[in-house]
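To: structure subgroup
Subject: Chain for Friday's discussion

All,

I'm putting the inputs and outputs inline so they're searchable in the archive.
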Amino acid sequence: MKLLMSIVGILGLFLASCSPKVHSNLASGADFKNYKTYAWIRETDTSGTSQDQQFSAYNNQIIRNNVKNNINSELQSRGFTIDTLNPDFLVSMKAVFEKKTDLVGYPLYSSYYNFYYPGYYALYPGYYYSYPFAYDYYDYTYTEGTLVVDIIDRETKKLVWRGWSDEREIKPKKVEKELAKDVNEIFQEFPS
């Protein structure tokens, strides 16, 4: 029973850590019923200055264009249309990726069996608790990503809505799928 509860607890923590944390802010008094059209703010160089950052597997022109297409789909599904000449609001998007390192430790037990099944002795008919005699530590490196979507009123030039997601770990092979999922979840908090 303890093993089952441990597995359920670990699975719950794993699923909670895999999903992005999505947040949004809405300016007081903002009325989205008056908005019908939008345009993109001209993109400045957000790729960084170094060669490594410009050609990163995470932040390149292809990925940014795909994220923009996902945002366009979300806005158009809500009835907004692109108008580059006279838009009601402006859209800005920024993706930031940062390498981070955590120190992770796991317990070491006194026998082979207890290393894989901590807390139980194999040679005795009853179960006896075993304490770890040491901990082994290693550095765990991962990439954390943040995607920010801003909606700016064109006339007042003030930010009226911001949505963003924090992704704890992003794998290079899945970055486009994860960012598309993040855009979808960010726009679930979009005012209607």
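Points worth raising on Friday:
The first strand starts at residue 21 and ends at 26.
Residues 1-9, 11-16 have pLDDT under 50 and may be disordered.

D.
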